[in-house]
Structure formats: structure tokens, C-alpha cells
Amino acid sequence: MTNFYYTIFITKKFKLMRPKALMLSCFLLFSMFAFSQELKPEEGTQQNNSNGGDQVYQEQRSYETKQTQRNHEWGFYFGPSWSFPKGGIPELKTELTYDNERTRARTGFDFGLKFNFFLNNNWSVDFNAQFKSAGQKVQYSGYWHELGYSEENVNFTESILYFNFPVYANYYLTENIYVKGGIYGSAILSAQRREGNVFSDYSDVGNLYKGGDFGVSAGIGAAMNVFFLEWRYYRGLVDITFDDDKLYNQSVQLICGFKFGG
Fold first, then answer.
1. Domains of the chain, earliest start first
2. Taking all residues of the chain, what is their mean pLDDT, rounded to a whole number?
3. Residue 165 half-sphere exposure, CB side, CA atoms within 13 Å?
């Protein structure tokens, strides 16, 4: 309307209110109206292009998220462990009385399987089944016998084998580094004691130990492609012997292994 009055004003001022001038005014009004209508589709097209770009961006982000989602894994592992139980060891019936007792860690070798189920990119639940060694080395010195007192050292090695079932919650600090914590249950497979050196015979002492164990475990690990490495600590929460002196399993474990499916 402003354009219309402005056109009338111009024609009055210059006294052009004739048929030709009127036709010119109508032509100008029609041209301005057509020009304004041509602008609207361009704005709508621009908005549609913007919406289409947002949709493509969201689809791309969704695709990238799916691509980085971790897959479930399984694997096998093996490695040494060092067992150093806390408490007094169960004693065999003997007529000897020792003055000194020294305990040392026993080195064993463990192996097992793991199944790692990812809840998201940061958390997973890790189920394990493994053969795990336990026990310790004990040295007695200074004892009385029927002929008197002796300072001779007597060495014993306690060797216990468990079928162990740890369950962990893993938290990934980075894509490859993670910490873990959980619980475990164990069933005893054998318990033996050896007196003397490595060439001495073992004797069965299974009657001194209970049938299983239960405790907590924690550790840290690193993974790269199909290879992984972990350091774990185990601490038993129940007395594993029938003896009056309580004994709790305790050990550390260094394992390396290979994983698949990730």
C-alpha cells in the first residue's frame, strides 16, 4: 500500500494522471507484487535446505556412534601368580616343636577363559573361569627331638589348586586402559605338602583345608588389538582351614592373553 500511495503522489506532483500514466502505475504495482512473490519460494527452499542439512548431520552422528560402540569379547589368558596367605598354616601332627617359622610366597602358574560383555563404551561385566594356584613356602628352624636340640632348617611347600570363578565390573579410563573390581568363588581341587627340596615327594593334606573359598579381587589392565595384559589382586574373606589358627588366601596375578570379537 505504501508503494501505491507513493506512486499516486508522484503522478499527482507531475500531473501525469492520464490513461498512460495510470497504466504505468498499474504496471509498476504489478511488477513489485510479482517480485515479492518470487522471493518467498527462495526463502522456503533455503529453510528446507537447512533442515535437510541438520537431518544429514544427525544421521552422520548416529552412524558414528554406532560405529564406535564396543562389541562383546571373549578370550583366554595365562601367567604367573604369587600366593602369600595371611594367618597360620595348618600343621601336620608331629612330635617336633619348632622355635622359628618363616613363610615365603609361592609362585604358581594360572590359566583361564574370560567373557567380557559391554554395557556401554565405558562399562563392562567380565566373567572368568580359571585354574588358580595357591599355597606358600614355609621354613622351620630350631627344634627339639629325641636326641636334643637342632638348628637344622626344615622346608615345606604348600601347594593348593582351585577352580576359580571371578566376576568383575570393568571401567575404561581410555579406549585401551581400564580398572576392574569384583568378587570370586573357588572350589578346591587338590592340596598337597612337600617336605624338603623340589625332588621330594608330595603328601596329600586335603583333610586340613575346606572345600572352597570366597573373596574380593581388583586390578588394572591394558588392551591393544587382540592382546591384553592385566595385574590382579585377590583377597580371601573366609578361613580356608579346619585348624584353630585362621588362614586367608591372598595373592597377586600377572596375566597376558588374547581376545576376540571386540
1. 2-68 (no CATH), 73-260 (2.40.160.20)
2. 81
3. 7
